[in-house]
Amino acid sequence: MPESLVIAIIIAIPVLLGTGIIWPRLFHSLSDEGAVKWYTKSAEHGDARSQLILGLKYWSGQGVSQSNEEAVRWFTKSAEQGYADAVFYLGTMYMEGREIEFGMMYRNHMTL
């Protein structure tokens, strides 16, 4: 099966079902690293939920090396598409003093 078809199916399943309930279960059986691989492919194709999840993975260091800058980058991409949870996590990172500057959010062309 071509990789692009797999990515399209991963993105389409929650849309076709009309819920996000299947999303966490889809990658449940994968290792953290395996899940990150597929979330990355989906996020790079513009899926806001995958971008949010990748931000959370980078923030916590689950399946990837912990990186506040990468977390901000993925949260910002998701927030720019109107994903409110991503805006919440950006604000939370700033409020907790996670070694990010408020200006870091603006470097990625985000406006609050």
Automatic annotation (TrEMBL):
- Listed Gene3D superfamilies: Tetratricopeptide repeat domain (1.25.40.10)
**What Pfam family does this protein match (any one)?**
Sel1
Write out the transmembrane intervals: 6-27
Q: Keywords in UniProt for this one?
A: Membrane, Transmembrane, Transmembrane helix
The record's SUPFAM superfamilies line, in alphabetical order, gives:
HCP-like
Q: Which SMART domains match?
A: SEL1 (SM00671)
Q: Does the keyword 4Fe-4S apply?
A: no
Is Membrane one of the keywords UniProt gives this record?
Answer: yes
| Assigned protein family | Belongs to the sel-1 family.
Q: What is this protein called?
A: Sel1 repeat family protein
What is the species listed in this Swiss-Prot or TrEMBL entry?
A: Plectus sambesii
